[in-house]
Amino acid sequence: MKVAVVGLGHIGLPTALLLARRHEVVGVDVDESLVATLNDGELPLDEPGLDSLHDEVAERFTAATEPEPADAYVITVPTPLDQRENVADLGFVRAAVESVAEVVSAGELVVLESTVPPGTSERLVQPILADAADDVRYAHCPERAIPERTLEEMTANDRVVGTDERATETIRDLYAFTDGELHLTDPTTAEFVKLAENTSRDVGIALANEFAMLAEGIGVDAHEAIDIANEHPRVDILNPGPGVGGHCITTDPWFLTGADAQARLVPLARDINDGMPDHVLGLVREQVAHVRRPRVAVLGVAYKGNVSDTRETPAGRFIRRAENDGYDVRVHDPHVEAYDEPLVDRETALEGADCAVVITDHDAFRELSPADFDGMRTRTVVDSRNILAHDALREAGISVSVLGDGTQG
Questions:
Q1: Nearest of 116, 213, 274, 226 to residue 266 by alpha carbon
Q2: How large is the angle between the packed helices 50-57 and 12-19, nearest 10 degrees?
Q3: Where are the alpha helices (DSSP H) in 289-360?
Q4: Catalytic residues, which ones?
Q5: Which of 81, 148, 306, 384 could be stapled to 242 by a disulfide with Cβ–Cβ 3.0 to 4.6 Å?
Q6: Strand stretches in 324-383, DSSP E
Q7: What pLDDT does residue 83 have?
Q8: Among candidate residues 75, 72, 66, 63, the one with its CA nearest the CA of residue 23
Q9: How far apart are the first and last CA of the chain?
Q10: Are 254 and 270 contacting, i.e. CB atoms less than 8 angstroms apart?
Q11: CA dihedral in degrees (401, 404, 405, 408; nearest 10)?
Q12: Nearest to residue 67, comparing CAs of 110, 37, 96?
């Protein structure tokens, strides 16, 4: 089978290379420099296992700027959030489908992996394909993978597939690279399932964050309380933190609710999580209230621990607000090579700082000792992830504030 994969980003390129284990694959992207890089045998993504996979399938993979006739087409373009309206921007999806429509023939399969609002397949995608050719088989199969574990999750996770019986056999052949189960349903349900998964995570994090803020006011340690509550067999409370990042959890809830005025819980959860960087900044203000023109060291700008992905990171909002407060902000992240703010090594970030703020739960930060903070001008720490050795830091004379711990001070 010949497969065209349209969109060669964080999901599209790994998908294309996995498909190339069994099929001839042409990867399609409008970015000419990206296509040239791939055809030169170089990879633009730093993802575990991707280099060796590319070496394995290089003879069956090429890149192009436009789709060419194939037996199956897999669309993996991004679906950003329209920040003004809080709705999905489907411009990339529409353009990709229209490009496929120019070459698709009767009986061929088109799969949309891009995450989209419910009804997108029925109202936007399938009508375009129906006008292009008779009997085009269609499926919506949203991806389920996270950075730094993309290949592992693509080959192990179950997948939901919205399709009809005509496409089932081809779908099973196409996704033979996964050991997970394919859960068959209709396209709209498949769209809903993907959004419900990430929205559930967002709401759960918001609840944990609300518990943390309540605990601070009541005078208890939310982390201890959550650990005890989770001993109940039907309770599974998540960990609080400085907010939510990544492309999916920050946007998918809005894709689900759209402009539906009846949605109440989901927008509230988004509001709580978006406000957490401001809450962390409030903890910092308390620590440096007596310091003139404070210097703040931000530890971590990746949106989650041990990855390099900074998309929609809560660190961004924290840094902008801190700078607006007049703080001198220095930023360090051992996993990130480039960011909107200049990055420095840990020693430089902490040297002369009045407060160190842990934003990302990297393992490297869990190992910090009191001596690592010796270069600070004012030795105060705000731990928004509850990962530092607080007792050891306090015994060394360092003032520690932990998000969610109301027993402090």
A1: 274
A2: 40
A3: 314-324, 346-350
A4: 194, 248
A5: 384
A6: 328-332, 355-358, 380-383
A7: 82
A8: 72
A9: 66
A10: yes
A11: 40
A12: 96
Q: Helix, strand or coil for residue 295?
A: strand
How far is it, in rounded angstroms, from Cα 288 to Cα 18?
51
Residues written for the chain = 409
Structure tokens at 135: 């009997």
Secondary structure (3-state) at 110? strand
| Chain CA centroid to CA 355, Å | 28
Task: Map tokens 């203000």 to a residue.
Answer: 285
Grouping H, G, I as helix, E, B as strand and the rest as coil, residue 76 is coil
Q: Write the CA distances from 378 to 282, 332, 365, 375, integer angstroms.
A: 17, 18, 19, 9
Distance of CA 262 to the CA centre of its chain: 27
Residue 261's pLDDT band (cuts 50, 70, 90) = low
Say how far apart CA 403 and CA 380 lie, in whole Å: 14
Q: Hey, what amino acid is at 63?
A: A
Angle, helices 222-229/187-218, rounded to nearest 10 degrees: 130
294 φ, ψ (degrees, to nearest 5): -65, 150
Model confidence, pTM: 0.92
Handedness of CA 384, 386, 392, 395 (dihedral sign): positive
Using CA atoms, how far apart are residues 384 and 284, in angstroms rounded to an integer? 10
**For residue 355, what are its two tokens?**
């407060």
* Residue located via tokens 């402009």: 259
pLDDT in tens, 144-176: 888 889 999 999 999 999 998 889 999 999 999
